[in-house]
Design brief:
It is a single chain. With 280 residues, the chain is α/β, with parallel strands linked by helices. Helix content is 37%, strand content 18%. It is built from 9 helices and 10 strands. The model has no long low-confidence stretch (mean pLDDT 84).
Length: 280
């Protein structure tokens, strides 16, 4: 039987953690372990974790979502096999009751995949005019029924009305599941510190470089709400700067360096500012 653990990384969001822990306890397929890795300087998160029966651990490394996730991988690794699963959820996300079972079903249908994610049900929906305008910056690309592949040079948003699972090359950090065979070989980038925006894209690009020809899967049957708590989020301008710097880093390490791809990345950055006002 596949073992399925959940790691929650948090910093200063004790109030948001309780609904998530309650939803995990109510899953039709309960997780084998729930481990919280915390960077909060006080004991507010610890109190919530213990009150809900979750395992609590301090992040021993520098404060960062990436170092905390790596610690979560190590803390849950003993006794696990290569096909066992580990799910990372943001602490302001709430999965539907059958979310973990749906993810496990998706993994059983496509065991060759490098990871799986569900559909974020409350992500921003944009109208046809805004979508068409975004397309001029390469932000909205056609998606077939089987495939949604995005180039690291372009900040593409996912379609929000999927009906069937699609192969993709980028999982969202708010809900992503990996088999232990991938986690044992690929670590989160500990050079991305604190908020570490786009650490999910960096991890997926690294995984695809280690497993050539691989893919991830988004399954819309596994549904999750991501409320995006305002607590302890960085300022919009700092987030914009981080997005540009981190995406340039990812592009440098894993992207296509031909001149038109570099121009495409800059054009995409401009489009993100115009269409979304740096909110993504």
């Amino acid at each position: 039987m596949v073992r399925h653990d959940v790691v929650l990384v948090t910093y200063g969001r004790a109030d948001e953690l309780a609904p998530l822990l309650q939803s995990l306890k109510a899953q039709t397929r309960p997780p084998d372990r729930i481990v919280i890795v915390d960077d909060t300087p006080d004991d507010s998160v610890q109190q919530v974790a213990l009150a809900h029966g979750a395992e609590y651990q301090r992040n021993p490394g520098p404060a960062s979502i990436t170092t905390a996730r790596n610690h979560g991988i190590d803390a849950t690794a003993p006794g696990r096999s290569p096909d066992d699963l580990l799910t990372f959820l943001d602490n302001d996300a709430v999965p539907e009751p059958d979310y973990l079972q749906r993810i496990q079903d998706a993994a059983a249908r496509d065991p060759a995949a490098l990871g799986w994610m569900g559909l974020v049900t409350d992500q921003e929906r944009i109208g046809p005019f805004k979508r068409a305008f975004a397309a001029t910056f390469g932000l909205s690309r056609p998606t077939t029924q089987q495939r949604c592949w995005m180039h690291p040079a372009i900040y593409t948003f996912y379609p929000v009305d999927l009906r069937l699972p699609v192969e993709t090359n980028w999982l969202w950090g708010c809900n992503m599941t990996f088999p232990r065979r991938v986690l044992s070989k690929v670590r989160f980038n500990d050079q991305f510190l604190r908020y570490a925006f786009l650490e999910d894209l960096d991890y997926c690009a690294h995984a695809l470089s280690e497993f050539p020809g691989g893919h991830f899967v988004m399954d819309p049957a596994a549904r999750i709400r991501h409320a995006k708590s305002p607590a302890d989020r960085i300022a919009r301008l700092d987030r914009a700067r981080m997005r540009v710097v981190h995406r340039a880093y990812i592009f440098q390490h894993y992207g296509d360096h031909r001149w038109y791809r570099k121009a495409q990345m800059l054009w995409s950055d401009l489009g993100t500012a115009v269409v979304f006002g740096w909110r993504t």
